[in-house]
Amino acid sequence: MTAIPQLAAEKDLLRRQALARRKAMSDVERIEKSLLLADYADGLPIADSAVVAGFWPIREEIDPRPLLDCLRQKGHTLCLPVVAEPYLVFRKLERDADLVPVGFGTMAPGPAAQAVRPDVLLMPLAGFDNAGNRIGYGKGHYDKVITALEETGPLLCIGLAFSEQEVDRVPVEAHDKPLNGILTEQGYRAFG
Question: pTM here?
């Protein structure tokens, strides 16, 4: 097995293990831990009036919506990702916006919503380590969009996850983009 397929296989195993731990949590535990994210909104290193991209939770993901509401109340513009080619696009999320399916099981404002460039990505993930490396779902959506957004200005990348999703070490491939920080129900941790 060559190095790249071996790294991909290691990541796939870690992904499956982290997702199994996440899935083993009760619904009540997931809800309670998701609500705790909002308690840390004031401690996040997000500049005033930043455009913040959240995500619509799927399966057993941590739910960022209470945190997003806190950030909206603090004056941030919110947006949600839409699966597109060559990479994700972000549509402005207005209060009471009609949401539509936009790929990968997620929801976002429809095509009439304004496209915006986020300053901050609050990102879902399958697993993460203490060095800020993350394991996504294997499609590369965030790695591609991070590369594109970094060409147009500064970008803050914060992973959102349950603490149960932490792994000892994420094998890193050349295309992988590290996190600036991680927010779990236990608080915010900066990397680098």
Answer: 0.94
